[in-house]
Amino acid sequence: MQIDSSIFKAYDIRGVVDKTLTEEAARAIGQALGALAKEKNVDTMCVGRDGRLSGPKLSRALMEGITDMGIHVKSIGMTPTPVLYFATVLTKTGSGVAVTGSHNPPEYNGLKMMMGKETLYGDGIQALRERIEKGISVSETKGKIEEIDVLTPYLEKILGDVKLARPMKVAIDCGNGVTGPTALELFKRLGCEVTPLYAEIDGHFPNHHPDPSKPANLVDLIETVKTTDVELGLAFDGDGDRLGVVTKSGQIIYPDRQMMLFAADILKHNPGAPIIYDVKCTRRLVPWIKEHGGIPTICRTGHSLVKAKLKETQAPFAGEMSGHLFFNDQRWPGFDDGLYAGARMLEILSRTSNPSGVLEALPTAVNTPELHIEMQEGENKQFVEKLQKELHFDDATDVITIDGIRVEWEDGFALARSSNTTPVVVLRLEGDTPEALERIKTRFGNAIKEIYPSVVLPF
Predict the structure, then answer these.
(1) Phi, psi dihedrals of residue 223, rounded to the nearest 5°
(2) Quick one: DSSP state of residue 135?
(3) Catalytic residue flag (residue 213)
(4) Please, what's the b/e burial string for 104-130 (b: 16 or more CB within 10 A of its CB; e: otherwise)?
(5) Which residues are bridge partners to 235 per DSSP?
(6) Residue 158 has pLDDT above 90, yes or no
């Protein structure tokens, strides 16, 4: 069959429901996954879905496609994506699909996929498309679908692992995503007094977009934390694999600073271990990790790429600026989980009487948010490749090209990389002081303009 190739992204499958991502497409993808499972000697896959309105029909079509190939399905129902990852560990299948649009607008949905303990990304996702286009012969015997409860053992696993030193008062913004009921139960059972915001699952997302990486989506949480007696605010994205954090004064603690707190705690028990961070993270992470006895290890951006690096290095912890945090110590099995990350954060902060003070004292710098240069499809990659070849900085202390170009100076850095999900060039700049940031903006901007005189820079 013909299938819209635009839905096959770098890290997942994602499209507009009933336009680019149809039930027919979901069934065909299920068949392709079933065929791959056979080749990998996988006989059972787990399937879960988030709270989007299209979730039931797309997950049903996907499961029908998988069972068409003689592969069995353990259906875990409507749960956060990390619960699906946990299901692949619990059932020992190492294989599963979360039907989720993550933090995309309501009209979108998609698939995050694992096979044989490996996350599918890049060429692995394109190979599914090629299978579908060539045509797939279904099996004579169908697999069976079994509904199982994974949420109960998932919660028991966290509650058996994480212990708070004292009860805490927290506000939790779930953005009407799938995390609502799970988050409320988890944090109450941990011993927290919880003030919930938008905890009802609603695929229309009527209050704000479920993406805690954007400050505009944290406005209500900040107001709640500042004006009530809660100590801290936690926010989750639409499918629960990313964490946002807000302090009592309304400061947003971005994931690269959250990583400092986690790295220091984890390195106490894993001295000399690598700690993985992506190219968008603050440069303040490097000396912090070294000071706490770890080896800072930079990685390309993308949760699938970070997972692959995690497996390669066996690092006990990894994180990226977008909010995916991976605990791979003896306590948790290495997947990104915003709910578990929130629990681990409260475990650390419950040891102090001033959690916000601890978070706000973490090293920081003056930086831009993630900035974008919009382009046509494919242009962004060519743009960045040219920058990698032609940009030269005699005054730089380092130039890192594992993912775009990150130029390091004594007092800051500038990054330009090609997004793998949308046709944009991603920029991020940081300075130790406002003056340093302005100088780096000018220096980096002028260098780009020499190569692309007509480009409109967003800074």
Answers:
(1) -60, -45
(2) -
(3) no
(4) bebbbbbbbbbbeebbbbbeebeebbe
(5) 173, 244
(6) yes
431-448 tens-digit pLDDT: 999 999 999 999 999 999
- Which pLDDT score is estimated for 377? 87
Residue with tokens 């949760």: 303
| 8-state DSSP, 138 | P
Q: What tokens appear for 347 in the block?
A: 């475990």
Q: What is the DSSP letter of 21?
A: B
Report the C-alpha gap between 166 and 143 in whole angstroms.
48
Q: What is the DSSP letter of 309?
A: H
| Three-point CA angle 302, 306, 310, nearest 5° | 170
Closest residue by Cα to residue 342 from 420, 426, 235, 231: 235
CA dist 199 and 150 (Å) reads 20
End-to-end Cα distance, the chain: 45
Q: Which of 217, 211, 246 is nearest to 230 (CA)?
A: 246
- Helix-then-strand count for the chain, H and E: 14, 21
Cα angle 254-260-262, degrees, rounded to a multiple of 5? 100
The residue from 54, 75, 102, 304 that is catalytic is 102
Confidence (pTM): 0.96
Instruction: Assess contact for 170 and 187: CB atoms under 8 A.
Output: yes
